[in-house]
Design brief:
The protein is an alpha+beta fold and 421 residues long. Among the domains are: 177 residues, Jelly Rolls (Sandwich); 109 residues, Malonyl-Coenzyme A Acyl Carrier Protein, domain 2 (3-Layer(aba) Sandwich). Helices cover 33% and strands 23% of the residues. It is built from twelve helices and 19 strands. The strands form five sheets. Strands 3-11-8-13-7-6-4-5 form an eight-stranded antiparallel beta sheet, covered by helices on one side. Strands 10-9-12 form a three-stranded antiparallel beta sheet. Strand 1 and strand 2 form a beta hairpin. The radius of gyration is 25 Å and the shape is globular.
Length: 421
């Protein structure tokens, strides 16, 4: 559904030559782990500036510290700290730390610990440039394996922990891990091994199983990949280690989203059910309410708001290659007569809604508008060219300025487009 970025080379026998990433995915995706030295050169995986990464993490933990909807977990001496409940926000990274090393020095001094770990999820929302670097790699992966119907997320793992504090575990993710500071040491067991040795699940003491494990060590510049059925645990030597990842979730997330949307809509249909009555004589259950609810559920597929909501959510997720948490929109007024640039790997998507309307989505954001004959050729022109002009786009959409203005404003605010005079 998205544009193919690969250049296909043909050998004399006309067999297409795979890119390095395609060859890697064919060999390892959801099959086996891999150690990738010099990953940015070998597979064009992102190599993120350490200072920018630290600043994004600080902004994310600051949001969490203010009670916003972020996921941050802190462990000290293998005990999870409830940062918000216990008002321990001072234990999170802050701007004054200036670096991961600065944060490390401070938390060791303040707590006296030699064993701590910090997990920060979806910090990519707070640096658009970093997100676009990661997105380029995710888009290339998606060309081969499809777009996650659950989500793509990022995490950062920081600390001196010698073993993951919550033990041996498995995630429903295909994950790429990028060491930034120190050594990233992982230990793996196959799903088959764990089925035959269930005591290892979530174990922090797994010494008797070490001989049956696979150990992989990586340094900054290297990458470790492993599939979703690998049970794993992170290990360390007591020195500071910082690693980030992006992960492709393989759960059926969109069906869950549809279920949640249906439940919310059902709550809005009819009167609230706050109590049951047994009648004056008791011993009898009036099932009419159940029949009413079943009838309401049966009408969901015919409700335009329900279907259109699912279509719009799907289009947004596809246009962001599976990411659900996005950088904030960019306040950028449209300049008439400007030159328009579409940034790789963004693509405009079009989806039909009910009542003569369509959804246009790009970079995870969307707008709903009446269908117009100018929309499809305009999106095609934007997707085919990385550079174009206001005037040429006006000619494409047959002078439908209101259509052009709305779609270009969506592209600019989502970050998919930029403009110059």
């Amino acid at each position: 559904m998205s544009r193919n970025n690969y250049v296909v080379n043909e050998s004399p026998n006309k067999q297409p030559k795979m890119t390095a990433l395609e060859a890697f995915l064919n060999r390892h995706w959801e099959k086996s782990h891999a150690f990738i030295p010099n990953a940015s050169q070998q597979l064009s995986l992102p190599e993120i500036d350490q200072r920018a990464l630290f600043d994004a993490v600080v902004r994310c933990t600051n949001e969490y510290g203010r009670g916003r909807d972020q996921i941050v977990r802190l462990y000290i001496d293998n005990i999870e700290i409830n940062v918000l409940r216990d008002k321990q926000q001072a234990l999170l990274p802050c701007k004054a730390d200036r670096s991961f090393e600065g944060y490390h020095d401070r938390i060791v001094e303040v707590t006296g610990t030699t064993d701590y770990s910090l997990l920060v999820t979806d910090w990519h929302q707070f640096d658009r440039d970093i997100w676009e670097q990661i997105l380029t790699s995710v888009a290339d992966v998606s060309q081969h394996v499809g777009i996650s119907a659950s989500r793509i997320d990022t995490q950062l793992f920081l600390g001196t922990y010698r073993r993951t504090p919550f033990g041996v575990h498995v995630d429903a993710t295909s994950a790429f891990h990028f060491p930034v500071i120190g050594t990233k040491q992982m230990r793996f067991w196959s799903d088959d091994y764990v089925r035959h040795h269930p005591a290892i699940k979530h174990a922090c003491n797994y010494d008797e199983h070490i001989a049956d494990s696979i150990q992989v060590n990586a340094e900054p510049g290297d990458v470790i990949y492993w599939p979703s059925d690998y049970w794993h645990v992170g290990e360390g030597n007591g020195e500071l280690s910082v690693t980030w990842r992006f992960a492709y979730w393989l759960a059926d997330g969109f069906r869950q989203y549809a279920s949640n949307a249906a439940a919310q809509l059902l709550q809005e249909m009819g009167e609230r059910t706050t109590r049951f009555s047994t009648g004056s004589h008791g011993g009898h259950v009036d099932t009419s309410l159940v029949d009413t609810i079943i009838n309401d559920l049966a009408t969901l597929p015919d409700r335009a708001s329900y279907r259109d909501g699912l279509v719009r959510a799907m289009a947004e997720q596809i246009s962001a290659f599976g990411f659900l948490r996005l950088p904030e929109p960019v306040a950028q007024p449209l300049r008439i007569g400007s030159t328009i640039y579409r940034k790789a790997p963004f693509t405009f998507f079009l989806a039909e809604l009910t009542n003569g309307r369509v959804c246009v989505a790009v970079a995870g954001y969307s707008l709903v508008m009446p269908n117009d004959a100018a929309i499809a050729p305009l999106l095609d022109a934007l997707n085919r060219h990385t550079e174009t002009t206001w005037l040429s786009l006006m000619r494409v959409c047959q002078s439908s300025e209101h259509v052009l203005t709305q779609i270009l404003q969506l592209g600019l605010s989502s970050g998919a487009l930029r403009q110059t005079h």
